[in-house]
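Lab meeting, item 3. Inverse folding demo.
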């Protein structure tokens, strides 16, 4: 039995023809040129182009550093396990080196602190002796890109929430200082043939982590007005004489209608800070390349996409050649999606919770295109004796490093024709709406990825798709405007995409008109990209065949008191998804089991548009997080959303007659450079984490089970890559699967 992804026969097969130039000209007001990838690019004189679209296409904010495969992959073959040696008590000698290699520790870490790397004498020689690929942390020293002060209370709290300037402003002086650190630190390790990457710093931010931060990033008073002119155009650029904080916006939220709503003064500030910061990081990466042109550079300790800290990943992923980020707020999936040809080495941290979880992490992150782990060494050794669980983990690290990891090199993620839209302005506005419940205590708000509507809505969409056997990639607002929507996508999902520009709306309409399916949950494009409420209805109202009334106020949306679905102050320390969604909220629950968004609009509205279909659910999918945690039967309530997927978005493989024991499984696929397909079967449990790390499983299923794997079309030349044996091919195969590990197959 195939995974239940609802009735996929709702719509007829869409046309896959290319746009006629005349059609694109009429819709976009621009010329259209198709590339080999069957996307369209915009190429018109600046005077005739939408100012925002021109900004996205031409600004250095969206220009990439060198991300060639030659640079990014040469020093990062396969899978690396790099211990961050916080409590490494077994020394750096021959015995510890042999032990490391025998246990799959094929990588290492060095710490640079603006002088000699802060490591025991002889560690670099030890690394060289045992051929361990290493990354150099704090290449740009500590305390400049990362402002947090250890375990003490937030040292800059009053500064963060004020309208001043970053306590260590980004300017020419800081650039020169950090270049000095970078040059000095690189010079001390460049002789080693085993350098894998340079990390500028750990947990970097233009504030501290993603704590609510209002200050301006630079003391250059000309930078912000110049940026406003770039993003709005010469004619429409606003004059902003005052740098504001959330407190200037918050009191108006209970008063404004959609048509009166204007968060642009605040959202523009955050977007400017993001751009200035990411360009600064990109400049430092390029400087590191000038010192050592053969080693990728980036940062570690990456945070979730957020309104604060520089974590607009449409910008971030253009400015790095190496990244380690915690798996919170969909970060790993977003990085994987924005990683050209999987060339940028992306890793995450392993924090020991249990050996079953450790083993699961190795296989899960391999199955999602990750290139390794940074292992946080805490309590792993008792003096010079290793804890016994490390012997149990070792075979999996060895297999990942020497057998399966190398197969991933140059492999490309395969989705099933579904794109989830990444709208960073919507994340920003989402924070503004979410934080209203806190009143003046918003300055203390943390853990957005655990609370925020944009995060939990996105999580629900991802898991509804994965539980239906359908894979996806994220598509960013920048890539959509620069390249259009590739014909490899048949369904575009808009998760809580509150803010859309006119340029985005035109391209989304064009995608639907040519035969694509567009599905939005609620309030799509009711605000523009700057956080201004639209006075004539939503940007996509014509597409969906509806009208969002600009007179709507917060009492007309979800509950009766807030603009969002959940009172996040009352549920700040929620324990269960169901508890969070029911405590103190006054939403209208539809018969489908999901909360209605606009109270006086219909739900599940389907509109034919050209050769495609546009579906406005007017429902939030957040309840799926609760249904999924309660088991397979309850999780079938996802069908109200999943039945609208374009018929071409179907599972390519699934477990036959999967029951409760197998529920939550996931299948991922990659196209290998040799033309074969690499397939993983793994578990996809909930994960937990925070600003200091994340990625551990919640409710992980373990134990061995027998499964039958079915394929939509017969496979040939089937091989079990873990066992190294050929298998009988066809439509169905029987397998043994240890659920906290992965089945790994390749085939033609």
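The presenter then showed the designed sequence:
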């Amino acid at each position: 039995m195939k995974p239940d992804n609802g009735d996929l026969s709702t719509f007829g097969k869409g046309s896959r023809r290319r746009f006629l130039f005349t059609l694109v000209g009429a819709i976009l007001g621009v010329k259209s040129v198709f590339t080999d990838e069957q996307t369209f690019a915009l190429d018109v004189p600046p005077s005739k182009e939408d100012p925002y679209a021109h900004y996205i296409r031409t600004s250095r904010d969206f220009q990439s550093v060198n991300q060639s495969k030659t640079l990014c992959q040469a020093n990062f073959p396969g899978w690396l396990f790099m211990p961050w040696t916080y409590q490494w008590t077994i020394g750096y000698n021959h015995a510890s080196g042999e032990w490391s290699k025998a246990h799959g520790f094929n990588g290492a870490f060095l710490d640079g602190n603006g002088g000699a790397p802060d490591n025991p004498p002889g560690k670099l020689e030890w690394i060289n002796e045992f051929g361990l690929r290493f990354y150099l942390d704090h290449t740009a020293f500590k305390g400049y890109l990362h402002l947090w002060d250890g375990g003490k209370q937030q040292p800059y709290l009053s500064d963060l929430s004020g309208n001043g300037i970053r306590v260590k402003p980004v300017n020419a002086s800081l650039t020169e200082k950090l270049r000095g650190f970078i040059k000095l630190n690189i010079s001390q390790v460049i002789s080693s043939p085993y350098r894998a990457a340079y990390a500028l710093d750990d947990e970097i931010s233009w504030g501290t982590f993603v704590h609510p931060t209002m200050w301006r990033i630079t003391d250059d008073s000309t930078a912000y007005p110049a940026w406003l002119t770039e993003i709005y155009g010469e004619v429409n650029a606003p004059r902003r004489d005052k740098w504001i904080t959330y407190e200037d916006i918050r009191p108006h939220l209970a008063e404004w209608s959609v048509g009166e709503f204007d968060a642009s003064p605040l959202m523009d500030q955050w977007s400017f800070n993001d751009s200035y910061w990411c360009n600064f990081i990109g400049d430092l990466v390029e400087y590191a390349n000038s010192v050592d042109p053969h080693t990728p550079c980036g940062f570690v300790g990456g945070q979730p996409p957020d309104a604060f800290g520089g974590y607009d990943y449409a910008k971030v992923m253009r400015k790095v050649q190496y990244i380690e980020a915690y798996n919170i707020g969909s970060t790993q999936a977003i990085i994987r999606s924005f990683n050209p040809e999987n060339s940028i080495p992306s890793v995450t941290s392993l924090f020991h919770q249990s050996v079953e979880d450790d083993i699961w992490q190795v296989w899960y992150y391999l199955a999602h295109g990750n290139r390794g782990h940074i292992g946080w060494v805490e309590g792993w050794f008792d003096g010079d004796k290793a804890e016994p669980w490390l012997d149990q983990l070792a075979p999996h690290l060895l297999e990942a490093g020497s057998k399966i990891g190398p197969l991933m090199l140059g492999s490309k993620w395969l989705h099933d024709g579904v794109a989830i839209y990444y709208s960073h302005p919507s994340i920003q506005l989402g924070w503004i709406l979410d934080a209203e419940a806190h009143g003046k205590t918003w300055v203390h708000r943390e853990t957005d990825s655990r609370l925020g509507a944009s995060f939990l809505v996105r999580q629900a969409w991802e898991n509804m798709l994965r539980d239906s056997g359908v894979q996806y990639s994220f598509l960013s607002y920048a890539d959509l405007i620069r390249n259009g929507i590739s014909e490899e996508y048949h369904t575009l999902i808009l998760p809580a995409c509150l803010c859309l520009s006119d340029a985005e709306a035109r391209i989304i309409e064009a995608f639907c008109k040519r035969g694509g399916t567009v599905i939005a949950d609620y309030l799509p494009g009711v605000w523009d990209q700057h956080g201004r409420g639209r006075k004539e209805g939503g940007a996509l109202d014509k597409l969906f065949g509806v009208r969002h009334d600009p007179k709507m106020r917060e009492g007309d949306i979800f509950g009766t008191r807030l603009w969002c679905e959940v009172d996040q102050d009352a549920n700040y320390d929620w324990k269960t998804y169901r508890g969070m969604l029911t405590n103190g909220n006054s939403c209208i629950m539809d018969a489908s089991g999901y909360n209605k968004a606009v109270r006086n609009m219909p739900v599940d509205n389907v509109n034919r548009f050209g050769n495609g279909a546009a579906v406005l659910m007017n429902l939030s999918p957040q309840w799926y997080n609760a249904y999924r945690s309660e088991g397979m039967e309850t999780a079938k309530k996802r069908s109200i959303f999943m039945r609208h997927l374009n018929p071409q978005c179907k599972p390519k493989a699934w477990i036959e007659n999967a029951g409760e024991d197998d529920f939550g499984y996931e299948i991922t696929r990659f196209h290998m450079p040799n033309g074969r397909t690499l397939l993983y079967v793994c578990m996809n449990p909930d994960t937990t984490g925070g600003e200091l790390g994340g990625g551990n499983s919640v409710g992980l299923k373990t134990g061995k089970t027998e499964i039958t794997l079915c394929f939509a079309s017969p496979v040939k030349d089937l091989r079990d890559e873990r066992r190294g044996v050929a298998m009988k091919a066809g439509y169905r195969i029987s397998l043994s699967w240890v659920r906290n590990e992965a089945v790994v197959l390749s085939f033609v």
